[in-house]
Amino acid sequence: MRWTQTLIPTLREAPAEAEIVSHQLLLRAGLVRKLAGGVYSFLPLGLRALRKVERIVREEMDRAGAIEVLLPALQPPEIWQQSGRYETARQVLYKVYDSARREWVLSPTAEEVITLLAAAEIQSYRQLPKNFYQISVKFRDEIRPRFGLMRAREFIMKDAYSFDVSDEAAQQSYQRMYDAYTRIFARCGLRTFPVEADTGVIGGTLSHEFMVPAETGENEVAYCEACGYAANVEKAVSGVKAESAPGGAATPGPEKFATPGVQTIEDLTRPPYNVPAARQIKTLVYLVESRPLIVLLRGDDQLNEAKLAARLGTTTFRPATAEEIFTLLGAHPGSLGAVSSTLPGAAPPVWADERLRGATDMTTGANEDGFHLRHVDVDRDLRVNEWADLRTVRAGEPCARCGKPLQIRRAIEVGHVFKLGTKYSEKLGSGFIDESGVRRPCVMGCYGIGVTRTLQAVIEQSHDADGIIWPVSVAPYEVCLTPLQMSPGSPVREVAERLYEALQREGIEVILDDREERPGVKFKDADLVGFPFRVNIGEKSLARGQVEIKRRAGGALEVVGVDEAAGRVATLVREARAALQVGG
Amino acid sequence: MRWTQTLIPTLREAPAEAEIVSHQLLLRAGLVRKLAGGVYSFLPLGLRALRKVERIVREEMDRAGAIEVLLPALQPPEIWQQSGRYETARQVLYKVYDSARREWVLSPTAEEVITLLAAAEIQSYRQLPKNFYQISVKFRDEIRPRFGLMRAREFIMKDAYSFDVSDEAAQQSYQRMYDAYTRIFARCGLRTFPVEADTGVIGGTLSHEFMVPAETGENEVAYCEACGYAANVEKAVSGVKAESAPGGAATPGPEKFATPGVQTIEDLTRPPYNVPAARQIKTLVYLVESRPLIVLLRGDDQLNEAKLAARLGTTTFRPATAEEIFTLLGAHPGSLGAVSSTLPGAAPPVWADERLRGATDMTTGANEDGFHLRHVDVDRDLRVNEWADLRTVRAGEPCARCGKPLQIRRAIEVGHVFKLGTKYSEKLGSGFIDESGVRRPCVMGCYGIGVTRTLQAVIEQSHDADGIIWPVSVAPYEVCLTPLQMSPGSPVREVAERLYEALQREGIEVILDDREERPGVKFKDADLVGFPFRVNIGEKSLARGQVEIKRRAGGALEVVGVDEAAGRVATLVREARAALQVGG
Predict the structure, then answer these.
(1) ipTM above 0.85, yes or no
(2) Domain Aminoacyl-transfer RNA synthetases class-II family profile, which positions (chains A, B) (predicted)?
(3) Please, what is the Cα angle at B487 between A123 and B514, to 5 degrees?
(4) pTM
(5) Portion 204-223 of A in contact with B at CB < 8 A
(6) What integer best gives the mean pLDDT of chain B?
(7) How far is residue A489's CA from residue A505's CA, in Å, rounded to a whole number?
(8) How far is A96 from chain B (nearest CA, A)?
(9) What is the dihedral angle through the alpha carbons of B160, B165, B166, B169, rounded to the nearest 10 degrees?
(10) Quick one: which H or E segment has residue B22?
(11) Between A319 and B251, whose confidence is greater?
(12) Residue in A42, A117, A153 closest to B33 by CB
């Protein structure tokens, strides 16, 4: 391709809208343009890079035995009602209306369609296992889209759905996808690490996310360098549960004391009270599908709503308002507690974090504004309906596996694998007749890769002050030829044209910067767009019969004879390709 | 690919929903499944064929110098308001609402987005010409989707948009696309013919459609076998305009006569009136953007609404109701006319079809229920505000170019090229600074191919009673290997597996029917799906050291030695490929 024949509108300055460097570089390198919040047009070079990610995904999915299909974006709401997700995924579902005022939804994922398809077309164990995937545009109603392609309203996703005869077989399908994902991201030149993940609104029993470490990531991951444990903070556990509970000997019994003006855990840690947060019980009130629930945590712990949702089996809950709480418990936040004697007759159920089990001599609200209770022994004074791991782990806590301190870092989720079990197959009727003639539901898995997000994650991970540093596997072009002048008939131009033809014949993806621009402009643009190799063709070096090959990553410069140039560049490109051809 | 590892749910019977054979075969061959009216899932083989059409389109667009981009489906309504299409394309625009009740539209085409992109990124004549294309999913609110992929709510379209400095340059871009389209359809194995077309709601000055002749097509094309003239009936003209007008000598003047019970042109042709339709004036009343318009045609002609729309420059019109007409003219349909003396003072404008020019001794309604006027001379008795070609041509009329009789046939539109002029570039601000420093609007063209429709058109044109007959260029697989039994260790199976490997090594797209099914079932399925070549491997012929190669098109059978089989099949496939490699 010739630079002047495509469209590469580079920008010197980063548009104000772009908060993170990969978003800035997407715009500055002329890869995408924003049409509206969270909605982007792919310009020629952005699309080339995107197609390369797609191709890697496709090759590895095919290699793993998955079969490509293409499912509609426009879907009838009835099938979402059938799966129950019309409600649970309500917040992200775009509604479409046709001229007859009939409603449709725009697909964010395709569990419903594929499960119905399997229900219609798969009848026998002989047809299993099957794994269907598609690479297609998806839609998600993001209230606050941000970070470019990272959290967009319209994006490209690879979604796959496996159908198996048993849990064990489903586990194998899961593992095949897990392995495929590992290869996919490695081939994209991305350093990712898998973490245990919450199954969220999709549901299911086992889940891993593939994470790209990045300061700007929207996920937090807890990990242990010693033993390799890694989990999304939404799901992560630590060894503190196993610590002995605070307190010690049993106390005589709860004692009420006045705490005028105390509103928070923090307030009570200060004089004259001096109750450490770890010796307080934090009392939260939630409305779960309109029914109240009391949630208790140690005063220094934070509730992890993802863990609560997983345990509840629904995301339809919210904190109660101060008014709702007063109606329920007769006190306002700041003085709340769950000591049985202070609760009303028909008290809401009480869920407590495991870390409170057996704790003695604790302090908590008295359900009377301005009063607390001390000397509270949890097992004696509280009636806990359900114990659960509900707290968020913190950096420095001991790893649950090996006891070494956990660390926490931010990351970008680029892939997600789920064991779904039979949740969807039962609701949507996907089953099979087994070898003994009995009909059973298919055991499913689902597997997503944010293709557009992966593209941007590559940039987030691989750039420098001058611009993008593309891995050769996803670079829009592998080589940029940069003649320092383009006067017709000049030797510089002639050599550039000759190299352009020679490299194309070698199967190298090459772009010729045929603009009549100053060398500095061409260098800056090539570095900004981030082609893995640049060949500088200038009068001076040409006079010595030489051209320069510059490697974008690291900046190594190699001077080669004009006649060897095409061969040498082709070799360098092939070596770079081979380095990313993971396991095949 | 092994048959058992993909999904090919063939059907013996055509589902009742499928009215035309290509739609039936799409379903019966297991290529697609319906999710909802006009919304289809592509199963593995359907997707493979679709991707091959896409690849041909992409290669020819690239060859023609067009640059691929990818534009969003989700678009802000404001840009459609800016172009004026929010109103004119209203009927086909899906409206989307997000959780903040903000409205979006789903893109049926992308003139607005690409023109705004050009407005932002193209500033100089040096950047022109440019032609951007995308292959992407589109949405169209079809009230009555039908015929499978032919008229769907969600479909895949290739749309391209060219930007030029002048009309002459735009004409060259148009011609390049016209030539590319000719190659694309030929490479898909489709017999198409280009016809002059109406520019419709897209607007513009010149347009051709690429048509596939088919009884089931939704378009009518008028064509002349003698000189090659061909045009969509919406646009077609014939030589009858030039015929001498009916009548002859001038008449003394209009004469009113009673016509009790006459409601139609047909009624007046019968006794006691006996007025031939050709001697009547048909009077129609339309409301154009709420304002009335009288349209006159010869009694035996039909109004062509597309021609009226083109002349009006809007599609926002409808026939007036009987009540509205009575209010306007004081009479009901059946007795309407436009003789000046019978019209009210502030009469609506009168448009007449060219064929009425100079007609004498005509009969028309008197604008008084139950009465008509005879001896009407058009030039004398009517005040026509505008003469235009408004009639629909009919088979047998003389060709406007050569005078030979026109024929009419039905066809499927698979592609459409438009010269747009500056309609969009002016409204959306796409311009350039020319060589003399003056800013001018870009001259645009737009070019569409219904990719999913093209796929189905191939089937509509190429099938027999047994199923699809794929051209090798778009076949899901080029060769089907059909072992007549699959017992483990049998020579039949062993030869089949050996051929499977050998053909893959030769770069042939091959599917191995590894099902344990009766030969008859395998033959029927292979013919139904329509693989271009089938290789039958059976015990009997194998005992003679032979296998059979069957060609789907024509059914020719060739018996070859086992050892030559792979080479011979590869040769046949390569010959078939070469036959469709049009001009390249």
Answers:
(1) yes
(2) 38-471
(3) 50
(4) 0.92
(5) none
(6) 94
(7) 23
(8) 4
(9) -60
(10) helix B21-28
(11) A319
(12) A117
CB contact under 8 A, B97 and A98: no
Average pLDDT over residues B225-242: 87
Q: Which of A40, A96, A158, A173 to mutate to test the interface with B (most CBs of B within 10 A)?
A: A96
**Could you count the other beta carbons within 10 Å of the beta carbon of residue B137?**
19
Per DSSP (E only), the strands in A188-338 are 193-196, 206-213, 219-223, 230-232, 255-258, 281-288, 291-298, 317-319
d(CA B157, CA B137): 6
Q: Quick check: A117 and A70 in contact, CB under 8 A?
A: no
Rounded to the nearest angstrom, the minimum Cα separation between A32 and chain B is 9
Q: In the β-sheet with A317-319, what is the strand arrangement from edge to edge?
A: A317-319, A281-288, A291-298, A350-353, A386-388
Q: Does B144 touch chain A (CB under 8 A)?
A: no
CA distances (Å), origin B333, targets A543, B192, B261, B278, B383? 89, 42, 11, 19, 20
CB contacts of B9 in chain A (<8 Å) are 120-121
Q: Flag whether residue A50 sits within 8 Å of chain B, measured between CB atoms.
A: yes
| Residue A317 near residue A303, CB atoms below 8 Å | no
Chain B residues touching A39 at Cβ < 8 A: 72, 74-75
| Pair A549, A482: CB distance under 8 Å | no
Decide if B72 touches A, using CB distance below 8 A: yes
Residue A359: which of A294, A269, A298 has the closest Cα?
A: A298
Nearest CA-CA partner of B45 in B1, B92, B91, B97: B1
DSSP for A128-175? --EEEEEEEEEE---SS-BTTTTB-SEEEEEEEEEEESSHHHHHHHHH
Give the domains, in start order, of chain B with CATH numbers.
17-72+108-218+408-461 (3.30.930.10), 242-388 (3.90.960.10), 470-580 (3.40.50.800)
A74 Cβ under 8 Å from any chain B Cβ: yes
Strands B281-288 and B291-298: antiparallel
Spell out the per-residue pLDDT of chain A, length 584, in tens. Answer: 999 999 999 999 989 889 899 999 999 999 999 999 999 999 999 999 999 999 999 999 999 999 999 999 999 999 999 999 998 888 899 999 998 899 999 999 999 999 999 999 999 999 999 999 999 999 999 988 999 999 999 999 999 999 999 999 999 999 999 999 999 999 999 999 999 987 765 556 789 999 999 998 999 999 999 999 999 999 999 988 655 556 667 778 899 999 999 999 999 999 999 999 999 999 999 999 889 999 999 999 999 999 998 888 888 899 999 999 999 999 999 999 999 999 988 889 999 999 999 999 999 999 999 999 999 999 999 999 999 999 999 999 999 899 999 999 999 999 999 999 999 999 999 999 999 999 999 999 999 999 999 999 999 999 999 999 999 999 999 999 999 988 888 999 999 999 999 999 999 999 999 999 999 999 999 999 999 999 999 999 999 999 999 999 999 999 999 999 999 999 999 999 999 987 54
Query: Distance, in angstroms, between B7 CA and closest chain A CA?
Result: 8
Exposed / middle / buried, residue A554 (Cβ in 10 Å: 0-12, 13-18, 19+):
exposed
Specify the residue for token string 């069957």: B550
Q: Which residues from chain B sit within 8 angstroms of residue A121, using beta carbons?
A: 7, 9, 33
For residue B456, what is the enclosing H or E element?
Answer: helix B451-461
For residue A95, the chain B residues in CB contact (below 8 A) are: 96-97
> Other CB atoms closer than 10 Å to residue A321's CB: what's the count?
12
Whether residues B67 and A154 touch (CB distance < 8 A) is answered with no
Please report, for residues A96, A417, B84, the alpha-carbon distance to residue A294 in angstroms, rounded to integers and kept in the order given. 39, 33, 56
d(CA B215, CA B461): 10
First to last CA, chain A: 29
Rounded to the nearest 10 degrees, what angle do helices B562-580 and B491-505 cross at? 40
